[in-house]
Amino acid sequence: MPAPDALELIALLDRFERPLVRYAQSITGDLESARDVVQETFIKLARGGMSESGDVVDNARHLEAWLFTVTRNRAVDHQRKFSRIIPMPLPEDRPCAEPGPAAVLERQESATALFRLLDALSPNQREVIRLKFQNDLSYREIAEITRLSVTNVGFLLHSGLKKLRELLREQSPEDFDLSRSVL
Amino acid sequence: MNADDPKFTAHVLGEFDDLTPAERAEIEALIANDPAAAAAAEETRALVARLRAELPGEAAGTLQEEQRAAVLEAASAEKVVRFPRLAAVLAAIAACVIVGISYGLLFRAYESGSDVKPVAAVPASSSHFVLLATPAPTDPIPSPTADLASKVTLNPAPPVSTPLAFDGKLQEELKDAPQIAALQPAPAAPALQPMVRAEPAVPAQSPASSTSSTTVTTTSPPPPEFQFAPATAARKSIKLPVGVPLDSAEPQGGAALSKAVTPKDKLAEADASKAMPVAAWARVRRGFAATSGGIGDNSYGLDDRGGIADKASNANSFDTLTENAFLNVPENPLSTFSIDVDTASYAIVRRYLNDNHLPPTGAVRIEELLNYFPYDYPQPQGAAPFSATMEVATCPWAPEHRLVRVGLKGREIPKDERPPSNLVFLIDVSGSMNMPNKLPLLQKCFSLLVEQLGPKDRVSIVTYASGTKLVLEPTQDKEAMQTAIDGLHAGGGTHGSSGIDLAYRMAQQSFIPGGTNRVILATDGDWNIGITNQSELLSMITRKAKSGVFLTVLGFGLDNLKDSMLVKLADHGNGHYAYIDTEQEARKVFVDQLSSTLVTIAKDVKIQVEFNPVQVSSYRLVGYEKRLLAKEDFNNDKKDAGEIGAGHTVTALYEVVPVGKERPEIAKVDELKYQRIPRAVPVEKPTPQRETEIQEREKLPSAAPAAAPVPAAKAETPAADGRTGAEKPATEEIALNPAPGAAPADGRTVTMHAPHKTIIVDADRGNNTTQASALAEPSPLPASVRKEMLTLKLRYKEPDGEKSKLLEFPLTDPGTTWEKSSPDFHFAAAVASYGMLLRDSKYLGEATWQSVVEWAREGLGADKHGYRTEFLSLLDRARAMKQ
Predict the structure, then answer these.
(1) Whether residue B546 has pLDDT greater than 70
(2) B176: confidence class by pLDDT, cuts 50, 70, 90
(3) pLDDT digits (tens, 9 = 90+) for B831-870
(4) Is residue A82 located within the same domain as residue A106?
(5) How far apart are CA A117 and CA A111, in angstroms?
(6) ipTM of this complex > 0.95?
(7) H/E element holding B390?
(8) Which of B5, B75, B294 comes nearest A5 by C-beta?
(9) CATH number (domain holding residue A53)
(10) CA angle B784, B787, B792 (to 5 degrees)
(11) Rounded CA separation B503/B524 (Å)
(12) How far apart are CA B489 and CA B494, in angstroms?
């Protein structure tokens, strides 16, 4: 795939910068380094990095997986370099992890609750759940990005979801019922 | 196999790729027969629905501007930067968006879209799939109702010398293929659009069109910006269109990619669009940020009535907005934007101020502040739906600069002449609306509207919460309407998209041809079920807007107002957006300005200003950041723009730096090596006129091919003043640039009102434009033209029209001082300055709260409804808070 030109890059930035920064931040734990990582990813793309990797597949779906892969690798590298605990972030710098004031909606409270529950999962589980439900990637794409096997991804998602179900049932049964009635 | 097998979960998630048929059957049997497994599956689905709904809402940072700039620099260092048509960019985005969602979801979205009967009853879904799945068809003669799929793949790349039929022609074809129009810009269509646009003429074209295209090629080469689509483009996988610059068109390109080819364009080189300074990228990006639906939720905190400005716990969401910068005329002679009649920002800011808070800068949109107020522009005369007025005087905040005010005024329609209305109230009754400043205010608001309705007006009511409900079948019974409104109550989740779908279906069902067909959506915009992804929702609303139903978006509440979403919904849905903070505001929208709110008199109104480098060194468009268009979009009738309602006034301001005055700081790039254009030499007229010419000719039914050029000229000549239209092409060229103040020979009346200049269009001058022949060689501009500061060009469509009409007005600066300028001019300058002060704009210049109060006082005028007086009190509040 040839390097995108500037306007295409802008379109790609608009489409992917937020998901990528968010993903990188979930690995690096802070916004600044997440931004650096994503900037590097896009610069690599701008310089024709995709063709360097020898890929012949040219579809946009693949591009997305490529962006996530590069972002992940760089974020993990970054983490190693700064020798912090390897993958996962603390929830503090996420605004939505803060409890809202009384007037904030029910829904947001439940969202906050959901994010809090996510923190109870293992970093691996959390990562695949993000990739799957935040970014709508397939098992295979997730496997490609995380360098896990598809079976492994399937297992992590399965166990992660199961844990979440259990936690929801224990901690806030009525909350869970609410989400069901909505369907 | 049991419910605790990862494969079971994969199945529930719809991940079938790695399951064998036997495994799938086994799992399905398990769910069917084992209640425990069924319960587990159900529970997982519920959880997944929540995850899908809530995880994407997690806060996500963006790159810093410098970081984006660095990325773009890396790209421009890599290769020559081109400036493809915006459509190509949108296609790229759309392709990305498509990729972002699963095919299954896509398919479902299309199916629901096809429930609404488009004008031509071809379901969008079918054409979509034909399009993607068709291998190169072999039918050699395109039918008049162009089957786009075959068009795309049929034509091999032409040699460069082939006469080209561009935009206008193609748009005509598109118009003939409404199923395509209904599709676009649904996700797949944009990917298609750039390939199809500007398609080379096929020998099998009807004689009429090929005649006209030949005419054009001989008179002057059109910008040969075309793109060809290799047959492989029709493959099922959707690709990012990747532009590859080519000097000579090489048949088929040989690549499996769909390549957007931009041959060197001799004319366009002059306008320096090839190499775009990095600083301009930000502007371009903003230009389509609104259309691309960047999932940008920059949030600023304010809770409901308490108004706790706590950034961490906020829920309102406003897109950030970077003010337009000064642009140099030699590099950027054209400024293009869509009109906008939203007023929400003014009321939102007022709400913040009345709560004793300063608004977040993202909530302050200067064009919406300006357009909140009616101005005293003249009524249009003759056939044109609106008048245009320009005034130029000293810029009060930068006395070295000139301030140009462009004013449009839609024709007033008296209350009793309002065409019958078919209104669908689409009301959000989810739990979040259950607050005193939302549902009860909303009910009052709709009651007011119902009171205003006449016996011919029809209303239906759709509500949505967790589910969608048709609360009131279409009726003309006002009592029934009132009862239904009174009976509304709130509770549950918010399934916005399904409500939209039903509302548009209802509007279609009782469609009144020639009447007002409008969905009025009342919400806080916080949708958490169904399609919540912004870009999907926007492409859905864009599709719905094609049905001829207009949209009004009413925002309520200030605890979790999704302003960024509502702005875009209105922009994409042929709509306008008002924010209702008080009953007075409801009264303004539904009583004082009812006709403007309901009756659309022109749509897709675009403004393009060409600045004269002899007079103007740089300029800045004040506001309209969300509505910027690429210069090419001006003539692109497929490109959506703003609507103007009966009696609406639209105001835009330019801060202009005359030649010789010190230029404000402009983001610097190195001087361009290949782009030196001597300032004194006139820049050639760009191509729109020629293009228009073609569009106009294409109007002729192809059944009468022999009649081509001359009768076309007749047909487009306005008869309003009794002149016959047998103008020769050569005289048309003169008509294009009339000496200031002179009445041109083509039916326009130019009226001058001292001390400012007013030009009234009183005839549907439409596309009566120049022949291209005179443009072949640049010649010095006539002295009268050299004196002109700028030329204002407007394009608009009739509310049910597909083809735009063009109006053009030159403006010469008479040197009016600030003191001599009109009261409205003072008031508009005060409102713009108020916005700049709230935004802490770097372009504030000498404006202070004190001076703004003075200017506003000078501009109070009659102030029939008291809006301007109220503005004065807001100024006081804001000043107290800012200081």
Answers:
(1) yes
(2) very low
(3) 999 999 999 998 999 999 999 999 999 999 888 889 999 9
(4) no
(5) 10
(6) no
(7) strand B386-394
(8) B75
(9) 1.10.1740.10
(10) 95
(11) 17
(12) 14
**Does A96 fall in a domain?**
no
Q: How many domains does the structure of chain A reveal?
A: 2
* Same-domain pairing of A153 and A111: yes
* Residues A144-164 pLDDT 10s: 898 888 889 999 999 999 999
Which one-letter DSSP state was computed for residue B757?
B
Please answer whether residues B163 and B209 qualify as being in contact, where contact means their C-beta atoms are separated by less than 8 angstroms. Answer: no
A4 within domain boundaries: yes
**Facing residue for A133 by CB, picked from B52, B243, B492:** B52
- Is the omega angle on the peptide bond into residue B755 within 30 degrees of 0, that is, cis? yes
With beta carbons less than 8 A apart as the criterion, state whether A88 and A103 touch.
no
Residue B697 predicted with pLDDT over 70:
no
Contact B532, B50 (CB under 8 A): no
Q: What is the CA radius of gyration of chain B?
A: 27
- A92 domain residue, yes or no: no
CA separation for the pair B210, B746 (Å, rounded): 27
The phi, psi pair for B757, rounded to 5°, reads -105, 130
pLDDT, tens digit (0-9, with 9 covering 90-100), for A120-132: 888 889 999 999 9
Query: How many angstroms separate the CA atoms of A157 and A138, rounded?
Result: 11
B791: which residues sit within 8 A by CB, 6+ positions away?
Answer: B609, B610, B612, B737, B808, B809, B810, B811
Indicate the residue of A6, A16, A22 with minimum beta-carbon distance to B76.
A6
- Which of B63, B96, B102 has the CB atom closest to A35's CB atom? B63
Looking up tokens 């995108």 gives: A4
Dihedral of the alpha carbons of B23, B26, B30, B31, in degrees to the nearest 10: 60
| CB < 8 Å to B59, chain A | 22, 94-96
CATH number, domain at A152? 1.10.10.10
| B649 Cβ contact list (under 8 Å, min separation 6) | B371, B373, B374, B375, B377, B407, B408, B409, B410
> Distance from B833 to chain A by nearest Cα, in Å?
30
- The one-letter amino acid code at B677 reads I
Give the total residue count for chain A.
Answer: 183
**Contacting residues for B270 by C-beta, under 8 A, at least 6 apart:** B677, B683, B684
Q: Which residues contact B339 (CB under 8 A, 6 or more apart)?
A: B408, B605, B606, B607, B627, B641, B642, B644, B650, B652
A165 and A120, same structural domain? yes
- Dihedral pair phi/psi, residue B245, rounded to 5°: -75, 135
- Of B753, B673, B516, B688, residue with least CA distance to B168: B688
Return the ∠ at Cα B229 (arms to B226 and B234), rounded to 5°: 150
Cβ neighbours for B39, distance < 8 A, ≥ 6 positions apart: none
Q: Which helix (H) or strand (E) holds A161?
A: helix A150-171
- The per-residue pLDDT for B166 is 34
The Cα of A131 is separated from the nearest Cα of chain B by a number of Å equal to 10
User: Is A20 within 8 Å of A38 (Cβ atoms)?
Assistant: yes
Whole-angstrom Cα distance, residue B557 to residue B316? 9
Q: What is the pLDDT of residues B755-792, one digit of tens each?
A: 333 344 433 443 433 343 444 455 677 888 889 999 99
Sign of the dihedral defined by the CA atoms of residues A162, A167, A173, A178, in that order? negative
Q: How far apart are CA A65 and CA A52, in angstroms?
A: 16
Instruction: Looking at the structure, tell me whether residues A79 and A120 fall in a common domain.
Output: no
Q: How far is B673 from chain A (nearest CA, A)?
A: 20
The CA distance from B777 to B428, in Å, is 60
Any residues with CB less than 8 A from the CB of B299 and at least 6 apart, and which? Answer: A95, B59, B311, B314, B315, B316, B317, B318
- Look at B96 and A104 and tell me if their CB atoms are within 8 Å: no
Indicate the residue among A87, A121, A148 that finishes a domain.
A87
Domain final position from A87, A111, A141: A87
CB contact under 8 A, B67 and A25: no
Q: Are residues A15 and A47 in the same domain?
A: yes
Full domain range(s) for residue A15: 1-87
